[in-house]
Amino acid sequence: MEFPTEVIGEKGYIRVTGDLDSEVAGEALRSAFNEIYEQGTRTIVLDLSGVQIINSYGIGKVLSCYQQLKAQRGVLMVKPLEGFVKETFELLMLDKLLPIDK
Amino acid sequence: MIFTQPSMLVADSDEARCAALLSLCADRGWGCTVVSDSIEFQRLVEAGVFDLVIADAEMPGFDYKTLLGQACRRKPSQLLAVVADSAAGEPEVRMLRGNETDIINRPIDLTWVERCMEQATISRRQEKREQLAYSFVVSERTEMRFTCRQLGEAQAISLPIVARLVAVSRLTETDALKIRLAVQEALLNAFEHGNLELDSRWREERVGDIDKFSSVRKERLKDPHYANRMVSVVSCFNGEAVEITVKDQGKGFSPDQLSCARSNDLSCFGRGLTLINNAVDEVRFSCGGTEVTLVKRLPANRSS
């Protein structure tokens, strides 16, 4: 499993396809993140529009990316969320932590 | 029950092949949607409205095995076919759905596609009959048992009861997602914390290149003492609610030790119980913490 990545200007984008609820998906996110991070990009945007479910494992992976960027004064952002993923982010107050990339 | 036109989803960037399939569908009274982008394909598959999905194995940027795997999980009854130069990938693709996936060799033979359409039509009729019968079911119970080794290899566990209740509109799609999430979390707890006796705090300790949690998890999955422990999942439908009980063979715990995630907690673990509590109407722990029951009431019974 691989997630498509793209760097446009100062921002790197990761398009998460499928659900973020397994070790395989978590590793795919980490791998996509590292690919952009190692290019020196410190503003990374997650596009979760294709995700139906994110579980505690997926959230752990997202927060690990957040912490790594924060330590380098970077920012982890998300594209506008919807559906059950939005509800999950609001429940865990991740919507306060990760700014929206409009 | 509404009977709609059968429909096909085609993921292919070859214009001539797409035109031939569109024409075939029009002749047979089928709907046909063509996409050449994996994100759009995934979005449509998630809608779960297609009877037959045909994907070109060679389409650039298209991980067809993963995407067809998701299609299987989303709607197990739909037929899948892969257009390939040879049957080289056949064993892996067939594994996706229990030997029912077709490989259509290039150049595409429309007779073969017609055969897939006939199969899909039969499968659709059978599904409708089963759905009609399920509208009258007042109770059902199923039990699944897994060893830790099997769970470690499984991508996802789907509950047939939930899928059937959604198909007859007795549960909403969102409720089904919530049940899926709650069961995943309960299974993870039973498997990793119950049977493998792993401590979440180890996720933040390093052992060489990986965290201690992953390192010990890997070791214990090789140790028969842990790896052969069972997790059982019992799903019950009683006409008013779905109850799923997950039981492990670990040492258990006191529910007093449990805590929900705090809003300012940035650690990479500890959110499972919060997610479960949000997803279902009732959570009960029993058997010294080795068993958890998740209750999701059907919409009509939710206020009681």
Question: Could you explain how this protein is built, in words?
Answer:
- The complex is a heterodimer of chains A (102) and B (304).
- Chain A is an alpha/beta fold and 102 residues long.
- In chain A, 39% of the residues lie in helices and 23% in strands.
- Chain A has helices spanning 23-37, 56-71, 83-91; strands spanning 5-8, 11-17, 43-50, 75-78.
- Chain A has a four-stranded mixed beta sheet with strand order 1-2-3-4.
- In chain A, helix 1 runs parallel beside helix 2.
- The mean pLDDT of chain B is 82.
- In chain B, strand 3 (52-56), helix 3 and strand 4 (79-84) form a beta-alpha-beta unit.
- The radius of gyration of chain B is 22 Å and the shape is globular.
- Chain B is an alpha/beta fold.
Q: Brief description of this entry?
A:
Chain A has 102 residues and is an alpha/beta fold. Chain A is 39% helix and 23% strand.
Briefly note the structural class of the backbone of chain B. alpha/beta
**Low-confidence runs of at least 5 consecutive residues of chain A:** none
Global morphology of chain B: globular
Main interface pair? A-B, 32 and 33 residues
Provide the spatial order of strands within the biggest beta sheet of chain A: 1-2-3-4
Report the mean per-residue pLDDT of chain A as an integer: 92
Helical content of chain B (DSSP H or I, runs of 4+) = 40-55%
Biggest β-sheet of chain A, characterized?
A: 4 strands, mixed
Structural class of chain A: alpha/beta
Poorly predicted parts of chain B: none
Q: N- to C-terminal separation of chain B?
A: 28 Å
For the biggest sheet of chain B, the summary is:
5 strands, parallel
DSSP summary: helix tally of chain B: 11
Radius of gyration of chain A: 12 Å
Order of helices and strands of chain B: EHEHEHEHEHEHHHEEHHEEHEE
What order do the helices and strands of chain A follow?
EEHEHEH
How many helices of chain A does DSSP assign?
A: 3
